[in-house]
């Protein structure tokens, strides 16, 4: 799928048709040559350099070709078109983690529901404990698979990495919550229940932070993509 990115964030000067590239090169001849690093990749300057002037950075559009983009003019705009798959990767992250967050929400409800049911039970709920243990192991396997997949995709966007950061916090919070749930299942005391409820509130907070990180990827990707 082709995406068109209007380079509004770059300071672009459109020369008249009669102006040659070599003339532009002479104009900037004595300025220091700065290479452009884009998402971890470096492009070497060949003629017109990257210029910092009056507190602004002027980037010659030709450098973007080094990163797999094609450049064309459309009226008074410069349009950069790419076959790059990075934004599809971002959308893939969104869908993947949306599904995962749904699974986490179901698990969250399981912990709450079973904790309320145990208030009426006198014996240790062996079957519940086995089921919760099985569901927790499934959550961990699913998360490990997602981390491995996304590492293979070499995701470099800082925004995308925030999903890893927040989801790691979420998994740690649910690890603590699950441990507290098992303690409550065995002890059935007011104190163990209090600790469990405190831990699950923290897990809820971490889940919301992960959802926000996922939403941020979605919103930024939609802004950059032109179907």
Automatic annotation (TrEMBL):
Signal peptide residues on this chain, from the entry's feature table: 1-23
Domain of life: Bacteria
UniProt keyword annotations, A-Z: Signal
Name listed for the protein in its UniProt record: Copper amine oxidase-like protein
Source organism: Cohnella xylanilytica
Lineage, highest ranks first: Bacteria, Bacillati, Bacillota, Bacilli, Bacillales
């Amino acid at each position: 799928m082709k995406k068109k990115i209007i380079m509004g964030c770059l300071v672009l000067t459109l020369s008249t048709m009669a102006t040659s590239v070599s003339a532009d090169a002479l104009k900037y001849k004595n300025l220091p040559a700065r290479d452009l690093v884009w998402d971890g990749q470096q492009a070497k300057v060949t003629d017109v350099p990257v210029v910092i002037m009056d507190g602004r950075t002027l980037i010659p559009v030709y450098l973007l070709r080094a990163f797999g983009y094609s450049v064309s003019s459309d009226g008074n705009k410069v349009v950069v078109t790419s076959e790059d798959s990075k934004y599809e990767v971002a959308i893939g992250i969104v869908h993947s983690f949306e599904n995962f967050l749904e699974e986490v929400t179901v698990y969250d409800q399981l912990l709450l529901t079973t904790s309320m049911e145990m208030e009426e039970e006198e014996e240790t709920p062996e079957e519940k404990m086995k089921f919760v243990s099985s569901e927790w192991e499934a959550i961990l396997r699913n998360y490990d698979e997602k981390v491995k997949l996304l590492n293979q995709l070499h995701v470099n966007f800082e925004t995308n990495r925030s999903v890893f950061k927040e989801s790691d916090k979420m998994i740690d919070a649910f690890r603590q919550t699950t441990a507290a749930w098992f303690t409550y299942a065995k002890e059935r005391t007011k104190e163990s229940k209090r600790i469990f409820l405190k831990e699950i509130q923290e897990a809820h907070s971490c889940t919301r932070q992960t959802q926000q990180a996922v939403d941020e990827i979605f919103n930024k990707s939609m802004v950059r993509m032109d179907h």
